[in-house]
Design a protein that fits this description.
By secondary structure, the protein is α+β, with helices and mostly antiparallel strands. The chain folds into two domains: 175 residues, Periplasmic binding protein-like II (D-Maltodextrin-Binding Protein, domain 2, 3-Layer(aba) Sandwich), CATH 3.40.190; 212 residues, D-Maltodextrin-Binding Protein, domain 2 (3-Layer(aba) Sandwich). It has 17 helices and ten strands. The protein has a five-stranded mixed β-sheet. It has a three-stranded antiparallel β-sheet with strand order 8-7-9. It has a two-stranded antiparallel sheet with strand order 4-5. Helix 8 packs across helix 9, helix 9 packs across helix 16 and helix 16 runs antiparallel to helix 17. The N terminus is likely disordered.
Length: 437
């Protein structure tokens, strides 16, 4: 090769390097099959174009996602570069050094714009270990047209006995109209997310101050009996298979008069492109029974990087992009402001376009900010978390109890038998784990 040709080749290589990204990678992201995450998938091509990186998506049903990412993180499998996890897992896994700290996000990301309670829920030992894609509390959706037609008025703070009365009045099985839709699919983040808030407001708790399980107490019996009776009388058929997505589909197609669930559903139900009841839906606070404590939950779906990732720089770049102010604006401009990721940033709730499109915005913000993870129950408890107990064992405990509650719902066993088995199972687990002697 002549010297002149060598110079020409070097010049070409230099030009190629300048035109190409300084680094590129293919990252694997595990996420849940919720609408917000599906939109993130669609928009992620913008990030790929900007950075030259590629994404391998693993999109899973909620219970399957939890199982897969938990197995991967605890075995150091290294299958994923980004995990979609929540406010339950993040501090537990952060303390184990299983997640990469996110304290060095660029100033333009504006971490302080994220609501303090959301940042705190995703932190441990003074470090931020995940960034929130969206945050939520829970409240009551209802069909204002059906209420008006029946001459019913939903209170600003409904009681569960009132909910029962409304559901009885509005159930019309001949027309596939059900008075109420509630989660029945077993899982610590599925039926037990809702049922734990129900138990809380009936005055119950998972454990006493010394970690003794409390599942066979009168409060649990009253709460679960209420739920089973209500769902059998006024709920849809096959309710034990219904989680968030299934109930969202039922409500948005006109089959539910009421639905108590995550506030994130508000944007979806008010979106005329995907909801048949967008002009008929209304909302109010989550109901209470005997006490207000823990009647509405707190949750954040968030993105985190496992310490086993070999593409940390690219993963951090995606986290900063997909949870930024600019990303919120991109969703608003692309899909409409009603469906932007809610509950995370103060700037979203100061945006006139969002406030105009989302009549539920201020209500959701207050529900999130008033959810008290430190005092979730009327009686004292040794744990934090409203619809979960923030200990590593809860994922297994909650799922097992969820299966028993689904058994009671379907009539495979009585409520008494389900709670008796749940008490014995949880007690054995807590003794084995060393919480009680």
């Amino acid at each position: 090769m002549t010297f002149r040709r060598l110079l020409g080749l070097c010049a070409s290589l230099t030009a190629f390097a300048m035109a190409s990204p300084a680094w590129s990678a293919t990252i694997t992201i595990a996420t849940v099959n919720n609408s917000d995450m599906i939109r993130m998938q669609q928009l992620s091509k913008e990030w790929e174009k900007e950075t030259g990186n590629k994404i391998n998506w693993v999109v899973l049903e909620e219970n399957v996602l939890r199982q897969r990412v938990t197995t991967d993180i605890t075995t150091k499998g290294g299958q994923f570069d980004i995990l979609t996890i929540g406010s339950y897992e993040t501090p537990i896994w952060g303390k184990q050094n299983w997640l990469v700290p996110l304290d060095d996000l660029p100033p333009s990301y504006d971490v302080k714009d994220i609501f303090p309670s959301v940042r705190q829920a995703l932190s441990a030992n003074g470090h931020l270990y995940a960034v929130p894609f969206y945050a939520e509390s829970s409240f009551t959706f209802y069909r204002k047209d059906l209420f008006d037609k029946a001459g019913l008025k939903m209170p600003a703070q409904p009681k569960y006995e009132e909910v029962k009365t409304f559901a009885d009045r509005l159930t019309d099985r001949a027309h596939e109209q059900y008075g109420i839709c509630l989660r029945g699919k077993p899982g610590w983040g599925e039926n037990m997310a809702y049922l734990t808030t129900l138990v809380n407001t009936f005055g119950g708790r998972w454990f006493d101050e010394h970690w003794n399980p409390q599942l066979d107490t009168p409060a649990w019996h009253a709460a679960i009996s209420f739920y089973v009776d209500l769902m059998r009388r006024d709920g849809p058929p096959g309710a034990n298979s219904n989680g968030f997505n299934e109930n969202l589909a039922l409500f948005s197609t006109g089959h539910c008069a009421m639905w108590i669930d995550a506030t994130v559903a508000a944007g979806l139900l008010y979106d005329k492109s995907q909801s048949q009841v967008a002009d008929k839906v209304a909302f109010t606070a989550a109901p209470i029974a005997k006490v207000p404590n823990g009647s509405h939950w707190f949750w954040a779906w968030a993105l985190a990087i496992p310490s086993t990732s070999k593409n940390v720089a690219a993963a951090k770049s995606f986290l900063a992009w997909s949870t930024s102010k600019d990303y919120v604006a991109l969703v608003g401009k692309t899909f409409g402001w009603t469906v932007v990721p809610p509950g995370t940033r103060a700037s979203t709730y100061a945006n006139p376009e969002y406030l105009k499109a989302a009549p539920f915005a201020e209500f959701v913000k207050q529900a999130i900010l008033t959810a008290d993870l430190e005092h979730p129950t009327a009686e004292k408890v040794p744990y934090t978390g409203i619809q979960y107990v923030a200990i590593p064992e809860f994922q297994a405990i909650g799922t097992q109890v969820g299966q028993l509650m689904a058994g009671a719902l379907t009539g495979q066993m009585s409520v008494d038998e389900a709670l008796k088995q749940a008490q014995a199972s949880v007690k054995a687990t807590m003794e084995q784990a060393g919480y009680i002697q």
